[in-house]
């Protein structure tokens, strides 16, 4: 599958010598897959305004590694959404990312991750 455009959204891929992060946008959800760290983050960061347009949920369930740089990205994206009066939810947060969030005292990052009714 080509990783640049899709009929129902956008997809992209960041390359590094080690691991990559890929993303796919479907409706209002951004699906991240792979490794989100300082080596793979730059292409996603450079396209964040276009990628985040219309997004209110980031599904991180397919990320197998996130470092503190990736966590900082989530904090920044969430803050930007709040400034625009929007809510951004992180879904699919696994034990590893949850532990990293707790270690940095950022539980508020996950506070509004309750399903919308």
From TrEMBL:
It holds the Pfam family STAS_2. Coiled coil: none annotated. SUPFAM superfamilies: SpoIIaa-like. InterPro entries: MlaB, MlaB-like_STAS, MlaB_ABC_Transporter, STAS_dom, STAS_dom_sf. Residues 58-117 form the STAS domain. This is Anti-sigma B factor antagonist. It comes from Xenorhabdus khoisanae.
């Amino acid at each position: 599958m080509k990783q640049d455009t899709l009929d129902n959204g956008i997809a992209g891929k960041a390359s590094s010598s080690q691991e990559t992060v890929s993303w796919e946008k479907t409706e209002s959800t951004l699906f991240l897959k792979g490794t989100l760290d300082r080596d793979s983050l730059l292409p996603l960061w450079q396209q964040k305004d276009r990628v985040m347009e219309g997004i209110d949920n980031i599904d991180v369930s397919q990320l197998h590694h996130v470092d503190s740089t990736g966590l900082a990205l989530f904090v920044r994206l969430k803050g930007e959404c709040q400034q625009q009066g929007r809510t951004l939810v992180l879904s699919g947060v696994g034990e590893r990312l949850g532990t990293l969030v707790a270690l940095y005292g950022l539980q508020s990052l996950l506070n509004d991750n309750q399903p919308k009714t």
